[in-house]
Amino acid sequence: KAVRLQCSRYFINRYNKEKDNFLDKIVTMDESAVAYHTPETKEQSKQWVKKGSPGPIKFKTQETRVKQMVFAFHDREGLINTNMVPRGKTVNSEYIVGVLKIFLKKLSKKRPDKFKRGFILHWDNAPVHT
């Protein structure tokens, strides 16, 4: 907690000196777990049947409990890059380095000025809330 407090004070001091220029330098990475379930729309579930035939039997669907980890990088302008962690993949330092390399390539294309001038990466490592 002491480190977070120290970082927060540092950010506040920088903001007081640089105002919006400081905020423009920040890129945040947040990780989240997303559910796989995407329900079928009424339009998608339509089927052709012969005249007078009963319609197809519809089964009640249940939302799956399977979730997938996603890393999202964004700044004040919006989303820069997302990385869907493959199911069953262990997220370790080697994997994170690969994610960061991909992010840097995307940043250099989507925000070339920010990439050249430099930026502050805010890695939001708070626990995922499920």
Q: Could you explain the architecture of this structure?
A:
This protein has 4 helices and 4 strands, in the order H-H-E-E-E-H-H-E. It has helices at residues 2-18, 20-25, 93-110, 112-117, and strands at 26-35, 67-75, 78-84, 120-124. The mean pLDDT is 85.
* Pattern of helices and strands: HHEEEHHE
Number of helices, where a helix is a run of at least 4 consecutive DSSP H or I residues: 4
Structural class: alpha+beta
Largest sheet: 4 strands, mixed
Contiguous runs where pLDDT drops below 50 for at least 5 residues: none
- The count of strands amounts to 4
Ends apart, CA distance between termini:
22 Å
- Sheet-strand content, in percent, reads 15-25%
Estimated helix fraction? 25-40%
Mean pLDDT across every amino acid position:
85
Any idea what the radius of gyration is? 22 Å
- What general outline do the C-alpha atoms trace? elongated
The side-by-side strand order for the widest beta sheet comes to: 3-2-1-4
List the helices and strands and how they pair.
Blueprint: H1 2-18, H2 20-25, E1 26-35, E2 67-75, E3 78-84, H3 93-110, H4 112-117, E4 120-124
Parallel strand pairs: 1-4
Antiparallel strand pairs: 1-2, 2-3
Key structural traits:
single chain; 130 residues; alpha+beta; four-stranded mixed beta sheet; 4 helices; 36% helix; elongated
Short synopsis of the structure:
The chain has 4 helices and 4 strands; from the N terminus they run ααβββααβ. The chain is of the alpha+beta class.
